[in-house]
Amino acid sequence: MPYQWPTDTDFAHWELDVVDRGCSVCGRRMYICDHRYRHIHTLDGPVELVCKLNHCPDPRCAGHAKTKSPEIEASIAPPYWAIGWDVFCWIGHRRFSRHSAIPQIRDDLLDDHNIKLSDDVISNYIHRYQAMLAARQQDPEVLRRQYASVKDLILTIDGLQPEKGHETLYVVRELTQKRVWFGEALISATTDEVQRLVAKAREWTDSLGKQAVLWLSDKQDAFVTAIAAEFPDVPHRYCDNHFLRDVAKPVLEADSHAKVQMRRRVRGLRKIEQAVLKQQSIQASNSRTEDDPQTAVTVIAEPGNAPVAKIDSANAVVLDYCAAVRGILNDDQGGPLHPPGLRMAEALDDVGESIQRNLDEKKGDSPKSSSDAWLTASTEVSTKSAGNKRRFENTSRTSKR
């Protein structure tokens, strides 16, 4: 469906003429036989291209029936497109360099350049950009220039399956230049299919006139067999990332189990927060009533909507402790070298030691009225914490091991 331009569009007019006006058959000078009008979007605004069409004036010449278009037209916009190369490259850069989503690209085009394109049209341009980029990256001449100063090649192959049952995308990369050579989606990772990809990598290596000195992979059986067949004298090593991930599986499973056990022991945060916030609400209500005894105020306290009143320092400390513990329990970041369960145990130990120091400092002092809510709401929790302190420390030590 052709692009629908608004009737009030203000176009900039560009006239394009044929540079070489000699007939390719008889050599006679061609003349203008017609004009073609074409509208495109550019980053500088809408443009109307006036293309002067030429053909040979001799009716007996074979070139008379052929019409020649201005050579420069193809450098402004591809045939039949509603956008120029500058808009096309802008879309590709936003998608693959800034990783913008298609709706965001659509909105940015409209806001910044007043270019209105649908999501389907932008998606189509992105697919064409991918095809052109892949063709450019696999251009033999471009590869030879990039690898002119490289002596040896280090190759790697790996697969990624988006979801179970879907095709797996296998990618071959060269690590000295950090360049993706090619990729292909395979339904099954049979030895024959994988060996076909490895054979293609060998063809690329031979075409560059270089030598592969090392292969890296996760050492699936198909990878081992295919690489040994196509690169018989090249060492094949285990990828460090895959090796560490496989070795760490038992550790991460034990770490995950330890996190579950620790979360079961730390309970009652919500009850403590509700009790403190309820007391703050009562204090705020009493404070406003004292200022204006004839006015009754009902204050509803929520964790994110505390009443505007003078907050007792002890209450603030209790809420800070609750927020810190909640953040610790929800922290799942880390990896094989920094398991989240170990960091969780260490952080909870720090919180427990901090609370104990505060309690030790307050021993012998009369409790403040503002801390009654903490004592009342945390009776069960603090009792369990005091009685199970040794078991909690054993759990932490277990998770650290």
What does this protein structure show overall?
The protein has helices spanning 73-76, 85-96, 102-113, 119-137, 140-146, 191-208, 221-230, 240-265, 269-291, 313-329, 340-362, 372-377, 379-387, 389-400, and strands at residues 12-16, 31-42, 45-55, 152-160, 168-174, 179-186, 211-217, 236-238. Helix content is 49%, strand content 15%. Helix 6 (191-208) packs parallel to helix 7 and helix 9 (269-291) packs antiparallel against helix 10. With 401 residues, the chain is α/β, with parallel strands linked by helices. The protein contains 14 helices and eight strands. It is flat. Mean pLDDT is 79; it is low at 295-310 and 366-401. The strands form two sheets. Strands 6-5-4-7-8 form a five-stranded mixed beta sheet. A three-stranded mixed beta sheet has the order 1-3-2, covered by helices on one side.
* Portion in beta strands: 15-25%
Number of helices: 14
User: How many β-strand runs?
Assistant: 8
Shape: flat
Q: Note the main sheet.
A: 5 strands, mixed
Termini gap: 66 Å
Q: Order of SSEs, N→C?
A: EEEHHHHHEEEHEHEHHHHHHH
| pLDDT averaged over residues | 79
Question: What percent of the residues sit in helical stretches (DSSP H or I)?
Answer: 40-55%
- What is the rounded Rg? 36 Å
Low-confidence stretches: 295-310, 366-401
Structural class by sheet pairing and helices? alpha/beta
Oligomer: single chain
Give the spatial strand order of the biggest sheet.
6-5-4-7-8
Write the layout of secondary structure elements.
Blueprint: E1 12-16, E2 31-42, E3 45-55, H1 73-76, H2 85-96, H3 102-113, H4 119-137, H5 140-146, E4 152-160, E5 168-174, E6 179-186, H6 191-208, E7 211-217, H7 221-230, E8 236-238, H8 240-265, H9 269-291, H10 313-329, H11 340-362, H12 372-377, H13 379-387, H14 389-400
Parallel strand pairs: 1-3, 4-7, 7-8
Antiparallel strand pairs: 2-3, 4-5, 5-6
Helix pairs in contact: 2-4, 6-7, 8-11, 8-14, 9-10, 10-11, 11-14
